[in-house]
Amino acid sequence: MKQLSLLFAILFVISCNSQQKVDNSSETPVEKQSIHSFEVTDLSGASFSFESLKGKKVLVVNTASKCGLTPQYEGLQELYETYKDQNFTIVGFPANNFLKQEPGSDSDIQEFCKKNYGVTFPMMSKISVKGGNIHPIYQFLTQREKNGVEDSKVSWNFQKYMIDEEGFLVGHFSPKTQPQDEKIIAWITE
Which residues is 61 bridged to in the sheet? Predict the structure, then answer.
């Protein structure tokens, strides 16, 4: 019996030592890209370079004027006013991808945002945030092969993407996450 136990112990040690290390990562490493390489157009038709935001944390939000979440504009503006002098900004991208809740022109959107919510954070020209004609900046935000962090889908209006000071994607928050949520504040102030 002792010999049998000794044999099992020897076989166990041999099998443990002969196991090869297995790479459990099914995903190949991806080099992170920076949002700072993007240039877009703002609501007034002017060119806007994300390179101008180097050194700032950026919250990128897809917006809509006729959505149940549209009142988040107020919270976003408050967030912007509170932290804009602390290397933080918000960039809004109007999109008509969800139940056609952003039907207006860029000038309509600009007027709506100023009149109803006093929006002063940068608002870009209307784009598509999903589907076959997804804008390149949202390809970056939603595709791991471009952002080096994660794949995601824009599930509705007011989804929030966090970009760090170097222009790298950190992660995202769901559309229902309010702008003053403690997780957003903690990220801004960390």
Answer: 92, 160
